[in-house]
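Trying the structure run again after the queue cleared.
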Amino acid sequence: MDIDVRGPRFGAVLTTLVLAVVLITGSAWLLAWQTLAFALGAAGGVARSPYGWLFRTAVRPRLGPPTEFEAPEPPRFAQAVGLLFAGLGLVGYGLGPEWLGLAATGAALAAAFLNAAFGYCLGCEMYLLVRRVTVRTQ
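Done. Tokens:
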């Protein structure tokens, strides 16, 4: 079943804010929260992430009905990519080197910002590219 495109974009706004605070404060605990949010989104889909739940219960009822939908697989893949970068960031902040934490968190922040500000989901585009390549090679 397709999902409301506003949900993942709302999640990207919150992710952008969380990751910006992580970069400013260096908080590994806050990055651990974001890593958990990515893990839940990757495992169960964006609707099952904490931000998806917040969108569904607090935001969507105040909006009009959705006019655009998308397949759930690309945003779910994007959550998995975010999980990878947040995990690398946790390793960097927790065990070192610190530059790894900064770089991985910054990369995740850049991708989240693209989605939040412009509706361009980098992880979703990666998913579509991988699908095209794997279909052609089979």
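Residues 111 and 122 are 6 Å apart (CA to CA). Worth checking whether this holds up in the mutant runs.
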